[in-house]
C-alpha cells in the first residue's frame, strides 16, 4: 500500500533509512558480531575470484560491491552483465564463486548464467529481496535484502539494500581472512541510515534541482570517478527509465575522449564528488565541460565541498558514500519525471521483473 504517498517510488525512496536499520538488525547479533551463514563465509574465503552477475540496477550495485570486497577482503572480483556473460564467458579462475544479485530473483538473463555455471559445477550465492525466488532456490546459498516488497518499476531501496548486504559480506570475508578493518561497519551503516533520513527530508531542494537542470532538457550527463562513476551510472539509468531524458553516466576522465562533443550550451552535467583521492580530478573534468557551455550540478560530500557545489551530502564513511549519494539522484529523477508528466511508477516499455532473455 502506498498510503499517503502519490507514488510507490517516493515511498520506497523514503523507506531506505528503515531498510538500513532492518539490515543492521538482521545481520548483527546481540553480541555485536556480524552474522552471515558460515558456509557462505567459507565459500567466499575458499574462492580465488568472485564473479558477480546481474542486470540493470543490480549490476550497478555489483560494481560498488566489487569495491567493498576488493578493498576490504582483498579477493579479486569481476562484475558482469548477465546477458553478455552467457554468450561470451570469460576464462574462469580455478576456484570461482558466483554471486547473483537480483531484487526479484526471477531475472531470466541472470538465471541463464546460473544454469550454465551450475552445469560447470561451480557454487553460487544469490543476493535477493525475494525468499524462495527462482535464483534463490537454484543457488547454493542466499543472502536476503530485507527491503520489503519493491513495487515501483524503478529500483531504489533494493539498490541500497544490495550495497549494504554486499558491504556486510565483504566485512565478514575480511574477518575470515584475518584482515582487520579500521572501522566498525555496523556503526558506519547506522550513520548512513541517519544520513539517508536527512537526504530524504530534503525533498524541496531535490525538486528545485530537478526543475533547475532537468525540466526541459533533452539530455543529461552524469560524471564521477571511482565509485562515484558507478553511482552516476545508476543515476543516469534512473533518470532515463522514468523521465525518458537521454542520460548517460561516464567516468570523469572518459568524457573528453569523444562524448564531450555532445555538450552544448546548458547541457546538464551532474557531477559527483564524494571521494577525496579524485576530488581535484573530477573538478577538473567539470571545468572541461563548463568551458563547452555545460550547466554543472555538483553533488559533493561534506569535507570536500567548494562554493560552486549545488548540493552537499553529510559525511559518511567514504567507501559507503554510494549508499548516500544515490538518494539525491533517485529524488532528482523522481521530480524530473513528475514535472515532465511521466508515469513514475510504470514507465513505458518496462516491466518490474524481466523474465525473458
Ligand atoms: C532499474 C531496474 C532494472 C533491474 C533489472 C534487474 O530500475 O529495476 O534495471 O534492476 O531488471 O532486476 P533484478 O534485480 O530483479 O534481477
From TrEMBL:
Domain SIS: start-end pairs: 40-179, 209-347
Gene Ontology CC entries for this record: cytosol
Active site, renumbered: 352
The protein's Enzyme Commission number: 2.6.1.16
Recorded coiled-coil stretches: none
GO molecular function: carbohydrate derivative binding; glutamine-fructose-6-phosphate transaminase (isomerizing) activity
Keywords (A to Z) from UniProt: Aminotransferase, Cytoplasm, Glutamine amidotransferase, Repeat, Transferase
Class in the EC hierarchy, top level: transferase
GO annotation terms (biological process): carbohydrate metabolic process; fructose 6-phosphate metabolic process; protein N-linked glycosylation; UDP-N-acetylglucosamine metabolic process
Catalysed reaction, written as an equation: D-fructose 6-phosphate + L-glutamine = D-glucosamine 6-phosphate + L-glutamate
Localisation per UniProt entry: Cytoplasm
Function in brief: Catalyzes the first step in hexosamine metabolism, converting fructose-6P into glucosamine-6P using glutamine as a nitrogen source.
Quaternary state and interactors: Homodimer.
Protein name: Glutamine--fructose-6-phosphate aminotransferase [isomerizing]
Amino acid at each position: 500500500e502506498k498510503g499517503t504517498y502519490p507514488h510507490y517510488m517516493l515511498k520506497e525512496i523514503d523507506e531506505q533509512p528503515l531498510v538500513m536499520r532492518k539490515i543492521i538488525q538482521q545481520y548483527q547479533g546481540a553480541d555485536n558480531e556480524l552474522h552471515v551463514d558460515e558456509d557462505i563465509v567459507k565459500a567466499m574465503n575458499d574462492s580465488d575470484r568472485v564473479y558477480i552477475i546481474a542486470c540493470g540496477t543490480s549490476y550497478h550495485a555489483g560494481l560498488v560491491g566489487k569495491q567493498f570486497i576488493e578493498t576490504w577482503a582483498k579477493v579479486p572480483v569481476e562484475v558482469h552483465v548477465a546477458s553478455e556473460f552467457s554468450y561470451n564467458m570469460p576464462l574462469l579462475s580455478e576456484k570461482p564463486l558466483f554471486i547473483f544479485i537480483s531484487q526479484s530473483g526471477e531475472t531470466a538473463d541472470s538465471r541463464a548464467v546460473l544454469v550454465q555455471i551450475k552445469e560447470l559445477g561451480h557454487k553460487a550465492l544469490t543476493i535477493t529481496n525475494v525468499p524462495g525466488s527462482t535464483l534463490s532456490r537454484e543457488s547454493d546459498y542466499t543472502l536476503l535484502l530485507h527491503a520489503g516488497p519493491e513495487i515501483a518499476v524503478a529500483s531504489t531501496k533494493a539498490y541500497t539494500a544490495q550495497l549494504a548486504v554486499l558491504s556486510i559480506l565483504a566485512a565478514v570475508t575480511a574477518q575470515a581472512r584475518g584482515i582487520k578493518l579500521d572501522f566498525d561497519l555496523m556503526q558506519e551503516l547506522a550513520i548512513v541510515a541517519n544520513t539517508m533520513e536527512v537526504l530524504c527530508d530534503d525533498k524541496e531542494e531535490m525538486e528545485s534541482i530537478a526543475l533547475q537542470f532537468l525540466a526541459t532538457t533533452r539530455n543529461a550527463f552524469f560524471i564521477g570517478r571511482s565509485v562515484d562513476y558507478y553511482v552516476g551510472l545508476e543515476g543516469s539509468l534512473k533518470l532515463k527509465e522514468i523521465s525518458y531524458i537521454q542520460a548517460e553516466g561516464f567516468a570523469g576522465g572518459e568524457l573528453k575522449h569523444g562524448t564531450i562533443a555532445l555538450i552544448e550550451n546548458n547541457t546538464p552535467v551532474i557531477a559527483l564528488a564524494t571521494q577525496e583521492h579524485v576530488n581535484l580530478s573530477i573538478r577538473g573534468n567539470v571545468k572541461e565541460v563548463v568551458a563547452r557551455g555545460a550547466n554543472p550540478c555538483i553533488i559533493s560530500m561534506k569535507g570536500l565541498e567548494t562554493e560552486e557545489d549545488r548540493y552537499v551530502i553529510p559525511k559518511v564513511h567514504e567507501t559507503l558514500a554510494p549508499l548516500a549519494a544515490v538518494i539525491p539522484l533517485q529524488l532528482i529523477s523522481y521530480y524530473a519525471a513528475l514535472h515532465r508528466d511521466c508515469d513514475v511508477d510504470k514507465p513505458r516499455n518496462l516491466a518490474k521483473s524481466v523474465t525473458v532473455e
